[in-house]
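so ive been stuck on this for like two days lol. basically i have the seq below and the ligand is magnesium ion, smiles is in there too. i just want the complex predicted, nothing fancy, no docking runs or whatever. if the output looks off dont worry ill sanity check it later, just need somthing to start from for the group meeting slides
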Amino acid sequence: MPSLISYVRDIFGKLDENHFKVLRVIEQNLARYEIVPREVIYSETGLGERAEKLLKKLNEYKLIWAPMGYEKGFCINYYGLDMLALKALVDRNIITSLGRPLGVGKEADVYDALAPDGKRLVVKFFRIGRTSFRKYERHRTSLVTAPSHLAASIKSARMEYRALRMLHPAGIKVPKPVARNRHVIVTEFFQGIELAIIQSLSRPIEVLGEILRNAVRAWEVGVVHSDLSAYNILITPEEEILIIDWPQWVPPSHPMAREYLRRDLSNLIKFFRRKWRIEEIPEEYLDLIRKVLEESFLI
Ligand SMILES: Nc1ncnc2c1ncn2[C@@H]1O[C@H](COP(=O)(O)OP(=O)(O)OP(=O)(O)O)[C@@H](O)[C@H]1O
Ligand SMILES: [Mg+2]
């Protein structure tokens, strides 16, 4: 499978406004049809049968696919949705280019990018459901995508973006949100690596305290991370932290909110105990946690 970068460079430049028009019509009609009939594409693009050549190209580039056979009509793939999102972000002058992958995982692909003013950005493409068709990748049909997965990815992007817009202005250490389009969010770049993989830490207790304070502040502004782990915390050589990866957050009014917060914090404390050999958790940290959990907090 081509990497996103080479695919973007190769394919994005080959698409003209009419290709994007066809992609958009397919996208818009997926709520109405499981498979968008070509007559709908012909008429709603206003291109009539001229759309046929474009469909062929888009299919060849694997931006769309025909689950029931070429005659029956089309669905859009993740890569097709990527194209539409990137097109919107480029047209809005948010990004000018994509760089190297920063993280390619289960539910998202994360890339380095540049803003028109040269600032480094991060572009996160959600990929819900991808693992369920991993097995097809070997057969080079990996780009097939169920519309419900596309919708779930768009929802995740909305959720994460909403959290960042609440947290960042409150001074909580999260990436600064820059833009969102469809299943893609853009944030500022942070020069750090995952806390889970760093080999030395000069002030582990202070770092733990900083993370706990940020998680408690997040609760106060209405957000419980719910998947807090050493993989979702970035740290610089100066031991500045950033808490990332927020799509699954819940508000404090959620019936499980306290339970999720308790789990987040106790996992984190366990990690610090184990990896950094912290014997005693400072009482002031425990007090901070007890204040929001409104009960005794035992690890
Ligand atoms: N703002 C940022 N600055 C620098 N690097 C980032 C930033 N956000 C994310 N990354 C990098 O991308 C990786 C994945 O990001 P994130 O945790 O948000 O996605 P994820 O949903 O966990 O994706 P995956 O399923 O691939 O693990 C991070 O571990 C980090 O290396
Ligand atoms: Mg993550």
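Residues 4-188 form a domain with the Phosphorylase Kinase; domain 1 fold (CATH 3.30.200.20). The pocket of magnesium ion (ligand 2) is lined by residues 231-232, 245 (CB under 6 Å).
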